[in-house]
Write a structure and sequence with these properties.
Length: 287
Amino acid sequence: MSESTLTAEVFVTPTIPAQTSIPGKSSIWPPISATLISGTRDAVLVDAFLTEDQARDLGDWIEASGKNLTTIYLTHGHGDHFFGMTPLLKRFPNARAVATPGTIAHMHHDLEPEYFQGFWESTFPGQLPSNLQVAQPLADGVIDLEGHELRAVEAGYSDTNDTTFLHVPSLDLVVAGDIIYNGVHQYLAESSKTTRQQWISAVDQIEALHPKRVIAGHKAPGAKDSPQAIADTRAYLTDFDQLLDKAGDPAELIDAMLARYPDLINPYAVELSARSVFARQQAHSPA
């Protein structure tokens, strides 16, 4: 048994402007969280942000902790959670970056030139780190931090495919990546009715661990890391499908979701999700 006691602290980025295909004040990127799990000497970072500036600020925060960063764990392959890994590895050269094989495959997808330039570079021109890398495979799905096990759990589909969360039993903690949202509209643009049910199953996996603290991948600044976010994430998915069944077009669905959840951050996610889901339904409808 380890004699050290772990702690977990969270750094949350502010929203930032994003160049999008839907004009208006809602064209922003939501807050992103990164978690530093620390022992007496060493620390593990979970997720690494998006832009060069965000990675610099995150590195300053890690440095100020006084801990020795040994590992960066990436919960999934969306670029807003791993692009900052590259400058962080330059700043902390003794650290390693690890992820599951499914997450690494998704990273490669997001770095394919056509997709990277067509989406990420066009959305954040001049803001992304250069010479982006992918993580290395995590052996056995476990990170050791001063004798404590940090367990990577593959959860399947959430807001994208092959997502994971990190379970820290000694803290009754789950660092949930994008499986859980907290105070922020959920990104459903890649989803279908089937994968939204799979997302609920991933939420159920986290709930079954009975964590006392749940850190969402996207959370409103100042939001408590409460297990209530588990039920809230599930309810949002259920409400989306119920309102989708009643909506005649994307505008009706957008209005209904914003009326149901008026206080959540980032209404652009609702617009993008509604338009994408309706476009996918039309593409699969009989001629």
